[in-house]
Amino acid sequence: MANPTLDDAATAPRLSILVPVYNESGNVVELHKELDAVLRDFPDGYELIFVDDGSTDGTAGLLASIQDSDPDHVRVAFLKRNCGQTAALSAALDLSRGSILIPMDGDRQNDPADIPRLMARLDEGFDVVSGWRKDRQDTLVTRKIPSRIANRIIARISGVSLHDFGCTMKAYRRRVLEGIRLYGEMHRFIPIFATWQGARVTELVVHHRARTAGKTKYGLGRTFNVVLDLILILFYQRYAQRPIHLFGRIGLISILLSLVSLALMLYSKFLPAPLTGLGAKSFIETPLPLVTVMFFLAGVQSILMGVLAEMIMRTYYESQSKTTYLLGEVRQGINRDSTS
Question: Distances from the Cα of 263 to the Cαs of 112, 121, 194, 252, 280, in angstroms?
């Protein structure tokens, strides 16, 4: 996420609302009106950042008109093609200047009236406040049930106890998002990244409204993408600094299985079991030789992949001067001149 320049910092608003949109021509005008009604008296300044994700239904033209009508608060970015919600949100993060960041969907299912409540919860000392659509206004089979299953899996695997990772409406302190780059469907996992970085994370029940215009862009297929992204971030969290520990274990297990297969192959050839009454079997009569070779090659390849991954990760950390630790507070004594 890009940092505001010194000139921007002097005039930067405190609050940035981030709204990625795609084919929401029936919603963006009313959404801007609702946001203006909620925030017009906000004392510390605010900005509304709309990112059009390659819309084809006239949304881009409406956003341009909104910006012309409210130039003091609205900033609009247009992506050259449809890049996905996470990419559009990442663009909004890079353009934002506020110290508090609140992303929300552009379909008006998130309620702008929840923004002051999210900010008030931040002021209680939290770094991230995640919205929870407790009374979700979506279809049961294709949206609500898959979401509940996915949320439970994510909470169980990640160790972060939230009910609704998929709710876009969240409030972040800017420092929590420094250095985070978003890919795939990973915007929903920001609270997990933040928790791993030592941030204080909580959740707040927010209103969820039924869609009144446009069509949903989500389906059952997105659940599989979320699970795959979860596997990826778990790899980063557990093995990014020592990937050889993962690939090496897999390799050693594969080699061990190849030795077991070899032992069974030799046993069936030279030491047939007397209780079965079977004679010695030729190597070509069983799949064991192939299984032995397959496991052995897979094991060697996995170990070599671990070595390569180790080299890549060390290059990654050293080339960007990244540390392998997270430094908190440092306290030390004050050096005093002992000479008189």
Answer: 67, 63, 49, 17, 14
